[in-house]
Amino acid sequence: MLVFHQISVLQEHLKQLRNQGMTVGFVPTMGALHQGHISLINQAKAQSDIVVCSIFVNPTQFNNAHDLAVYPRTLEADSQMLDTAGCDILFAPSAEEMYPKLPTMKFDFGALETVMEGAFRPGHFNGVGIVVSKLFHIVQPDKAFFGQKDLQQCAVISCMVNELSFHLELVICPTQREEDGLAMSSRNRNLSPEQRAIAPFLYQALNNAKASLLQDKEVSEVKTELAEFLRNIEGIELEYFEISDFDTLQPFHGTLSQNSGGGKIALCIAAFLGKTRLIDNIII
Ligand code: PAF
Q: Pathway involvement (predicted)?
């Protein structure tokens, strides 16, 4: 695997590969890689000639200084995992390389970012938009691969790709889970053993809510049930649970039988376990 730290050197190398007719699959990450990331690398390998993975803990998408400070940084281990997985190129720029000066531009994703992560992490999606658009310009991939665990991020990036006519295809891949159902996340490694033991209750809560919706219970009742379920688990503090239209991410009201359009519904949750914030979602 080749490792690049400088934008211009990476671009020159990718230009040569593209001139040879090779297609490029891109997996942007913030490192602390786990099998969820490796599943994205595998998808990228299956669908492209060359796989590029970026590792960059992007300061502009953190609205919480503590979260940025404790975000796990494990470049050496990540690099080995990527090499073993058959990734061709790792791009690991410094903050100075990516942001010689802090960007002044702002993204506005409208209603997509006034809910859930956007509402609780002001500025987060602006930072995501800036870094992902920069990375897309740098790598110019044919396809870019993202995990469905970050459902709202996928929606925001899809909006950006469409509205700014990025010449690439987004591939959204299923959430990878541990055996006990916990969604794989870089933040899981910040959990204490006690917190790790109760973390799968988030997935269980989502599945309970799904079962209630399928019994045609009202959204408001299902939300109350979920909040009550998690209130009984010491160590989990619910931040939000939303039942939303999958396409618009706007709140869904009523019961499933009243879902006349028959579109998909997303059940999305965010909760704190101590200082670690986890998110997850399932789709009906
Ligand atoms: O999902 C992530 O890891 C990050 O938000 C991304 C897309 C790499 C941008 O920094």
A: Cofactor biosynthesis; (R)-pantothenate biosynthesis; (R)-pantothenate from (R)-pantoate and beta-alanine: step 1/1
